[in-house]
């Protein structure tokens, strides 16, 4: 007679299956998988290894494992991703937020002189709304608009705003970059598609097969979105306003050139935690200067 499964024995079986499928750090991945399948915290998985697994729970573990071995990210399976300490719901229409994008949030906050200011913020290509909502969570008097071409992404961003208690200070609209807008903002942020079209197939399957292609594909050289955005930035920013945008590895020079050609002044290029140039900060001259020292945030 086969003994009943426990969390411990299930953890071992899942780790073995992941290792056989070619995943590295299989034990760590298995623990995270069980947190999703069993709705447990990591600490609970660690300390409750002898807890029995019910038949229904075993079926849930098997279902999640079957998706994971096809390289579907656990954040996609769970439908949520933590970003800036906040939990964001995901859908097939939204990019899965990456930790390196927090560099952009840090860059903006480091360059606003007054956290209590009533800033107006625009998020171009908002996706899940993570950039705008992360900033609003730190700036209690600020408000903003998120724009995305995908109606499903706009709906998900609205739901995230409601879940986080930020719906009253945020609005999300369907549009192609800033074309539907006729107002100025203190801050414009963007994490546009910046992968060259020919490079999409070489991306890890977790990205290539599960993130929406429109959120990845930046055209032949990856810079189509920046060409579209930079022509609109001067009219979008108030004098002294700040733009912060994410870009891909090796694109810092080309992005800075496009932004400079629009008439904005480059303040700095900021690396992510891996030391890779990741974020450009620029400002529109005139008015009260909101950009800080030009140094990267600590």
Please describe what this structure looks like.
By secondary structure, the protein is of the alpha/beta class. It has 2 domains: 7-70; 81-283, Rossmann fold, CATH 3.40.50.150. Helices cover 36% and strands 18% of the residues. Helix 1 (7-20) crosses helix 2 (26-38), helix 1 (7-20) runs parallel beside helix 4 and helix 2 crosses helix 4 (55-68). It is elongated. The relative contact order is 0.11.
Structural class: alpha/beta
Strand % is 15-25%
Q: Report the CATH superfamily of the largest domain.
A: Vaccinia Virus protein VP39
What pattern of helices and strands is seen along the backbone? HHHHHEEHEHEHEEHHHEHEE
Q: Fill in the CATH topology of the largest domain.
A: Rossmann fold
Strand order of the largest sheet: 5-4-3-6-7-9-8
Q: Quickly name the level 1 CATH class of the largest domain.
A: Alpha Beta
Total separate domains: 2
Summarize the structure.
By secondary structure, this protein is of the alpha/beta class. It has helices at 7-20, 26-38, 42-47, 55-68, 74-78, 102-110, 130-138, 151-163, 205-208, 224-230, 233-236, 252-261, and strands at residues 80-83, 86-89, 120-124, 143-148, 170-174, 185-190, 237-246, 265-271, 277-283. The protein contains twelve helices and nine strands.
Key words describing this protein structure:
single chain, 298 residues, alpha/beta, Rossmann fold, 2 domains, seven-stranded mixed sheet, two-stranded antiparallel ribbon, 12 helices, 9 strands, 36% helix, 18% strand, elongated, disordered C terminus
């Amino acid at each position: 007679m086969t003994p009943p499964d426990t969390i411990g024995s299930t953890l071992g079986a899942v780790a073995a299956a992941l290792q056989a499928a070619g995943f590295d750090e299989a034990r760590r991945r298995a623990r995270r998988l069980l947190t999703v399948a069993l709705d447990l915290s990591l600490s609970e998985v660690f300390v409750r290894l002898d807890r029995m697994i019910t038949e229904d729970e075993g079926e849930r573990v098997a279902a999640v494992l079957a998706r994971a071995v096809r390289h579907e990210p656990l954040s996609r399976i769970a439908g949520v991703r933590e970003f800036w300490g906040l939990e964001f719901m995901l859908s097939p229409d939204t990019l899965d937020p990456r930790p390196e994008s927090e560099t952009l949030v840090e860059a903006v906050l480091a360059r606003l002189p007054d956290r209590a200011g009533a800033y107006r913020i625009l998020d171009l290509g908002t996706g899940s709304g993570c950039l705008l909502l992360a900033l609003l969570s730190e700036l209690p008097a600020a408000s903003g608009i998120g724009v995305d071409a995908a109606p499903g992404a706009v709906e998900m961003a609205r739901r995230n705003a409601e879940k986080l208690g930020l719906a009253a200070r945020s609005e999300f609209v369907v549009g192609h970059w800033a074309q539907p807008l006729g107002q100025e903002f203190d801050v414009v942020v963007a994490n546009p598609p910046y992968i060259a079209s020919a490079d999409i197939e070489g991306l890890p399957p977790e990205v290539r097969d599960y993130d929406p292609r429109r959120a990845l594909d930046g055209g032949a050289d990856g810079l189509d979105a920046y060409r579209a955005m930079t022509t609109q930035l001067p009219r979008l920013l108030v004098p002294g306003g700040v733009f912060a945008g994410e870009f891909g590895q090796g694109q810092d020079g080309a992005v800075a050139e496009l932004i400079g050609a629009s008439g904005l002044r480059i303040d700095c290029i900021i690396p992510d935690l891996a030391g890779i140039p990741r974020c450009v900060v620029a400002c529109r001259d005139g008015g009260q200067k909101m950009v800080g020292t030009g140094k990267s945030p600590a």
